[in-house]
Amino acid sequence: MPATPAVLPELIQAALAAIDAHAEEVTELDRTLGDGDHVTNLQRGLRALLAQSDELAALDDWSQALQKMAMTIMSQIGGASGSLYATLFMTLAKQLKGKAMDLAAFAEAFEAGVEAMKQRGRSDVGEKTMLDTLVPVAAYLKRAAGEGKDLDQVLEEVKAVATEGMESTRDMLATKGRASYLGERARGIVDAGARTSQLMICTIADKLAE
Ligand code: ADP
Ligand code: MG
Ligand code: MG
């Protein structure tokens, strides 16, 4: 894992490019299951992060950078996804305070972050949300760090874990958010938030592996 936030501009840029490239597909998903604004919500947030990315990169401390990102996400991304991602980044910042960045520290912080998202959303895996991508990824990272797996292998394997989690939402009924009103009609469609978190995780993993 990169020791400093200097890598952030590149990662934010890559995440935004991945969302832009799949904008139509994801908007269609959120139009069916939600209100169709998920992509524009994320794009607004990622563009705001990109605009401050030089500032973020200049910080030599991951915790400070993540805290700053949480504030930007909170103020720029409306809707459910904004408060959930802000919660994730705020928790990452808190957990990584005073720690050196490595896979073990990140895995521990990420697990706490996803737990905080569950609390915030009063939700868990199996409810057809982004948590179906993020929870298995958090569990995988924790396990991989515990086993002392090589980072290149982790960056490869985490993509399959995220993709499997995202795909698991296809046949689920939704019990949280707007999609819960659809009942059986929600089956057969992947959750937009699960798809975008998978897209961002895969693209960030590829960037970090370069
Ligand atoms: P909104 O639903 O407020 O319009 P977005 O469209 O940006 O916000 O985000 C929708 C995504 O947020 C959903 O696809 C789902 O993945 C996620 N989501 C919504 N509510 C919850 C919740 N309570 N817990 C976890 N994730 C949620
Ligand atoms: Mg929406
Ligand atoms: Mg909305």
TrEMBL record:
Pfam families: Dak2 (PF02734). Residues 6-206 form the DhaL domain. The keyword Ligase does not apply. The keyword Transmembrane helix does not apply. It is an enzyme of class 2 (transferase). GO terms for molecular function: glycerone kinase activity; phosphoenolpyruvate-glycerone phosphotransferase activity. NCBIfam families: dha_L_ycgS (TIGR02365). This is Phosphoenolpyruvate---glycerone phosphotransferase subunit DhaL. It comes from Methylomarinovum tepidoasis.
